[in-house]
Design brief:
Blueprint: H1 4-9, E1 36-41, E2 46-50, E3 53-60, H2 65-84, E4 96-102, E5 106-114, E6 128-133, E7 136-144, H3 149-165, E8 174-179, E9 189-195
Antiparallel strand pairs: 1-2, 2-7, 3-5, 3-6, 4-5, 4-8, 7-9, 8-9
Length: 196
């Protein structure tokens, strides 16, 4: 049940248009995405090196759709308040990440990518954090089809098994589902991310 949320709900966000300052892959739909380079590709997964990135993140109370929608509303409201205060935080970016961290308790969060050169405002909302992720290696499993809890769980399991079989070292406690398409899109580009 740890992975159900991130695949179902990571694709529910609205679609916006935006520019790119690097040549993003087609699945970014000409929207701003985190920059990366492919280090290795095989039939089961891809190894990517991402540049350092910024994200706005909020806690997800459970894997229920209503809680996901509440989290997205918090992020939307935060961006609007910051815009009203003179800080534009673009919401026309992909992917949307649903991250699950299994420690003593299970932590769930929703994150939106913040493009480079976005001015970081002083945060006055304790429910939204500005998260900096350093440059790092991510193992990625790509799959298509409409988002579902079952597919998210299955692809996370398959990625972990492929990494073990390939002798890769990875963080077994954290996993993200990355969504690049609105829920009503005809096609879907879905990813599972696991960090080293």
């Amino acid at each position: 049940m740890a992975q159900p949320l991130f695949m179902l709900v990571s694709f529910v966000l609205v679609s916006f248009c935006g520019g790119q300052d690097w040549t993003a892959p087609d699945f970014c739909h000409q929207q701003q995405c985190p920059q990366y380079s492919v280090v290795e590709t095989n039939q089961d997964f891809e190894t990517r090196l991402y540049v350092s990135t910024e994200w706005i993140t909020t806690k997800l109370e459970s894997d229920k759709v209503a809680d996901f929608m509440a989290a997205c509303s918090r992020l939307t409201d935060y961006c609007k308040r910051q815009s009203d205060a003179g800080y534009k935080i673009p919401v026309d970016t992909w992917p949307v990440l649903i991250t699950i961290t299994d420690n003593a308790t299970q932590d769930l969060s929703v994150s939106w990518f913040v493009p480079p050169n976005t001015t970081k405002p002083e945060n006055t909302d304790p429910s939204v954090t500005w998260q900096s992720r350093p440059e790092g290696t991510v193992y990625v499993r790509v799959f298509d089809g409409p988002p579902s809890i079952k597919d998210g769980q299955e692809n996370a399991r398959m990625l972990r098994e492929a990494l073990v079989q390939a002798g890769k070292t990875f963080n077994p406690n954290t996993c993200s589902g990355a969504g690049y398409d609105p829920i009503f899109s005809v096609t879907h580009h879905n990813e599972i991310w696991i960090w080293i």
